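HUMAN:
Sorry, I am quite new to this. Are you able to go through these amino acid letters and fold codes? The numbers rather puzzle me.
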Amino acid sequence: MAFDAAKEYLEKIGLGDRVKEFDVSSATVELAAQAVGCEPAHIAKTLSFLVGDEGILIVAAGDAKVDNHKYKETFHAKAKMMTPQQAVELVGHAVGGVCPFGIKPGIKVYLDESLKRFDIVYPACGSANSAVKLTIPELERASACEGWVDVCKGWE
């Protein structure tokens, strides 16, 4: 159902033809890179966090890791990832397929600076065996992001 919601959302904005479904899992960065046929860094992983009672998503490059200090400076809260159950309840997607498309209302999306070095990235599309090929401007538009943040390390 989450895949259908994400794909339908992307179709409405003219990007539905970019969605790929795989016969293999793409639930981790490494598996997604193998399924897509790209370097792991080009996978745009979507991380789900709680800031107080509110859910947020941060889309980052596959080789980036959240820097707790930068996160706290940006969001004025300790980095607290959602549980798998919270991701389904609050975002509408299960872990392994979390993406910024077709999400529940009230979830804010942020894009991490680690993505800006690429022309093309591959976020999931609501399931653990899907991806969508997007340019950075397309990702900005499709994610309806609040803006760019610098909360990751390890990719520089």
